[in-house]
Every structure is written in C-alpha cells, then in structure tokens.
Design goal:
Elements lengths: L2 H19 L10 H22 L3 H18 L21
C-alpha cells in the first residue's frame, strides 16, 4: 500500500468514525440509514456500559443497606473483635 493510499484510507476511516460517534454526515459510499442505526446502537452500548460502571447512588446505598442488615441479623461471632486494626496496640489484652 502506498503512502497516498494509506493516507486516503485513514481519511476515510476518520470520516466514518465521525459519522458513527460524532454525528457527522456519512462518508460517500455508505448507506446513511445504516450509519444512523449503527450510531444509535453504539450510543446505547456506551450508555449501558456507563450505567454498569457507575450505578446511581441510590442503587449503591440500597446494596450497602442490605449488607448492613444482613450483618445485623447474623450478629457478631463469639470472641470476634471490632474492625479497626487495633490488634497489637498498647492496652490490648490479647497478648
């Protein structure tokens, strides 16, 4: 592939990418309806991935509430120490 062909291919790919994710007009030779449908699918896929990676705060708080409720139901095991990393500090009677 010559440098001119490589440059032309790169420019065509940029135009196609701009049409798919940037809302630009489709490049010559592409069906505008197919580009529109594919662009909509890519936006939906991106929105879904974002929602999975960053759930709304209410969802995260609900999960934490459920975790704390489960912990409260189970109670503390006999001899268990509170979390906090106090093992081995002065005044610790476990030694």
């Amino acid at each position: 592939m010559s440098d001119a062909e490589r440059a032309a291919l790169g420019a065509a790919q940029e135009r196609l990418l701009a049409a798919l994710v940037g809302g630009a007009d489709p490049p010559p030779g592409f069906d505008p309806e197919r580009i529109r449908v594919q662009a909509r699918a890519l936006r939906a896929k991106h929105a879904h991935a974002h929602a999975q990676a960053h759930p709304p705060p209410r969802t995260r708080l609900f999960a934490l509430r459920a975790l704390f409720a489960l912990r409260a139901l189970r109670g503390r095991r006999a001899g268990a120490r509170p979390a906090g990393g106090t093992d081995g500090l002065p005044g610790d009677d476990a030694e």
